[in-house]
Amino acid sequence: MPAPLMSRDEVVERLFAVFRQRGYDGASLSELSQATGLGRSSLYHYFPGGKEDMARAALDYLDSWVEGHLLAPLRGAGTPAERLARMTAELDRLYDHGRSACLLGALVHGEGRHLFQERLRSSFGALVAALAALVVESGVAPTEAQRRAEEAMVRIQGSLVLSGGLDDDGPFRRMLAGLETLLLDAGR
Amino acid sequence: MPAPLMSRDEVVERLFAVFRQRGYDGASLSELSQATGLGRSSLYHYFPGGKEDMARAALDYLDSWVEGHLLAPLRGAGTPAERLARMTAELDRLYDHGRSACLLGALVHGEGRHLFQERLRSSFGALVAALAALVVESGVAPTEAQRRAEEAMVRIQGSLVLSGGLDDDGPFRRMLAGLETLLLDAGR
DNA sequence: GTCTATAATAGGATAGAC
DNA sequence: GTCTATCCTATTATAGAC
To answer: Which of A23, A113, A121 is the closest to B25 by Cβ?
Structure first.
C-alpha cells in the first residue's frame, strides 16, 4: 500500500484552484488529475461521487477558509474598522489581488448552479450576514446594515468579474479600498 | 433546398440565450442544437468555425443589442437623468429583472475567457466609457466620472452574480434603484 | 492508495444525400 | 439549408492488479 502523496487537504486545495478558474463544466477530470498529481482512480478513491463530490469538497474548503480567515477576524477583537481591515487583507490574499476568480461566482453558471444552488445561497448568505453584524456593531441600524453588507458582497463579486473581463486589477483594488467607507461611514 | 426555418438573427438570439445561461464550456452542441431547432450540420452551415463561432455570434448579438438599447439612449435626447432611466429600464429587460445572467460575466470563466479575453475587454470598456461620458455631461470631473462608471459596471455584474447565487431578485432590483444616485448625485 | 486498462458515453466536427 | 450517418476525440467512470 503506497502512502498518500499528499494530505487530503492539499488535494482539495488544488481541486479548489481548478474549479475557481475553470468553473464546474470547464473543469475536466484530466485537469483535476493533473493539478493534483493523482490518477483518475486515486481521485475516485478520495471522491467516490466523482466530479460533483470534488466540487463539493472545494466548496467545503472555501467555507472553512472563509470561516477561519474572514468570519473569525470579523468577530474578533478590536474596533469594527480594525476587524474589517483584517478581513480585507485576507480577501486580497484569497483573490490574489483580483487576479483569481471566486469559486462561488464561477459555480453560479452552468451545471454548477443546478447542482449547488442551495450551497451558494448559504455561503453567500453567511458572508453577508457576518458583514451586516459588523456594521450593526458599528452603530448602524439593522436594515441599513443589511443593505450595506449586500452591496459590499455585490461589489466584491462584481469587481472580480470586471477585473477578470478587463484583465486589470484596478476594479478589484479600488473596490477593496472603498469597502470601509461603504460599510462603516455614517454619512451615507 | 428547404427554406430557412428562422432568420439567422433569431438563431443567434437563441444561441445567446444558451451561452449566457450555461457559459462557454457548459454549452454543448446538443443543447445549442435543441435551442435553435437546427441539427448539428445546419449549425455548422451557419457557423463553420463551430462552437467558437457561435459564441462569437452571440457576443456580436450582445454588442449590437447594447449599442441599440443601452448606448444609443445614453447619447440620446433629454437630461442625463432621463437618459439613464431609459438605460436602466432596458437593463431590467436584458437581465429579466435579475433572473438571467450576463453573457460577458458567463464568458469570463473557463475556456470562454481564453478565447474572448479581448472581446470582453472591449465590450466592458465600451459600456464603462459610455456611462462615464454621461456622468461627465452631468457636470462631474472626468476622473470622478470614470470611477463612478466603473463602480456602476461592478454593481451590475455583482448584483447579477449575487441574485443568481441567492436565487433572489433583490440584489439586482436594489442595484438598479441605486444607479442614478451613484452616477449622477453630486454629494459623494 | 495508486496504477494500468478499459468501458461507456458525450463531446465537437465532417461527409454526402436530397 | 437541412438531414442522416459517421468519425474521432475527450470525457466520466469503473475494474482489477499490485
So the answer is: A23
